[in-house]
Design goal:
The protein is mainly alpha-helical. It has eleven helices and four strands, in the order ααααααααβαβααββ.
Length: about 325
């Protein structure tokens, strides 16, 4: 999982957070309980597929391999290892709340879970499987044949596999974070330090990119606004080039989709390349490269306390319990 705090050109009085006007709408909204309208049989089918290693060509990887629920929906590695032991381009983002993102993938090159899931299945350094092989495997499994017939009323088809996976992923929301409870009126849900951290979060301008229900996930930003050096086109890992690999426009060098900060407390290491091992490290780096400032230690501490309040619950259990 990664963290990115965007640039602000507004001055901040270090260590002091001013009270916001009560007439101004808050830029962050609470996560709701799992959305209605999701067919339970398709959610359950998608859950089985998500954990099934037969979806990878060597039957060695499943979606859970890189999106471990006990690690906040990601893994504790800078970049994960995929097919034939090759390193992936990016740090694995959390799968939790993925359905709340407008853009998907570090480069934001997907706008639907179905599209992204297909790319993961076919990518030669990810699941590395083909549709004929995958459909053949599923079709030879009587349990899957029966479940797909119940859920979709026909034999197993590509579009239904993608729909089942996406439907399950849309169910992976984590409501009831302390900050959500605070936003709903529970003034004791977060500490004074966390509340000050939230005010600083707004005053530093972090909310210009990290806002909405997912506290990010819907805009693009250059990683390193106050860093004169751009990633080299000769980099051994083209994941560092950001959206350039999609648009081939120099203005997109080092530009990435801003990640969600939901559950960021439990999803280290951070950034697209996993360079920051801890949340305080990530906040300090963002102060330097996005704000052009050395953030005072008290501000870093309060910002981290606020970010910890974004840790929600999955199926009624706080993700903190998985640490």
């Amino acid at each position: 999982m990664a963290l990115s705090i965007c640039v602000s050109f507004h001055g901040v009085q270090h260590g002091v957070a001013q009270e916001d006007s009560k007439t101004i709408a808050e830029p962050i909204t609470p996560v709701e309980v799992p959305p209605g309208g999701l067919a339970i049989d398709r959610v359950q089918l998608g859950e089985m597929l998500f954990a099934d290693k037969s979806l990878s060509s060597k039957r060695m990887l499943s979606c859970l391999s890189c999106h471990d629920f006990s690690s906040g929906g990601t893994v504790r590695e800078r970049r994960t290892i995929g097919y034939d032991g090759r390193t992936h381009r990016f740090n694995a983002p959390s799968i939790f709340n993925v359905g709340l993102n407008y853009r998907l993938g570090w480069r934001g090159n997907f706008t639907s879970l179905e599209e992204q899931n297909e790319a993961v299945l076919l990518d030669r350094n990810l699941m590395a499987i083909s549709w004929p092989e995958l459909l053949s495997r599923l079709g030879s499994n009587g349990w899957y044949v029966a479940r797909f017939a119940e859920a979709y009323g026909r034999q197993i088809e590509r579009v239904d596999v993608l729909n089942a996976l996406a439907t399950y992923e849309r169910s992976l929301v984590t409501p009831d974070a302390p900050f959500d409870r605070y936003m709903r009126g529970s003034t004791t849900a977060i500490s004074g330090k966390a509340l000050n951290g939230y005010r600083l979060f707004k005053q530093y301008g972090c909310v210009s990119c990290h806002q909405g229900v997912n506290v990010g996930g819907n805009v693009f930003q250059k990683f390193g606004v106050f860093n004169d050096s751009l990633p080299s086109l000769d980099t051994p890992n083209d994941g560092d080039l950001g959206r350039w690999t999609v648009t081939h426009s120099n203005r997109d060098l080092g530009v990435f989709r801003v990640p969600s900060l939901r559950n960021v407390e439990v999803t280290a290491p951070y950034f697209h390349d996993g360079r920051a091992p801890s949340l305080p490290d990530a906040v300090r780096i963002m102060g330097q490269v996005q704000l052009g400032q050395q953030l005072p230690d008290p501000d870093v501490e309060d910002l981290v306390e606020f970010l910890k309040t974004l840790t929600g619950k999955y199926r009624g259990i706080s993700l903190q319990s998985g640490r």
